What we know:
Elements: H1 2-91
Amino acid sequence: MFKTILPYLIPTATAFISWVFAFFYYRKERKNDLSAKLFEQLDDLSNKYIELNSKYVSLHLQMGKLQKENNRLKNAIKEIKPDFILEKEKEK
């Protein structure tokens, strides 16, 4: 009985083993491709983060300058406003 099954068993076992090796090889290659894509996306995201962070810093500096200018103008208005009110009272 073993002699009748052996011719069929060897090619079947060989095919199964080669299928298992091919499956693991394909899986490994697929993981390598996915990891390469992941590193590429990570690099792109880090570049975008650096760009956005630099824009944020420049906008923050501009906001500080504009706040200083705004405070200076508010103080100038506060100084001019009492004189303007006195002039209106004189006209009345």
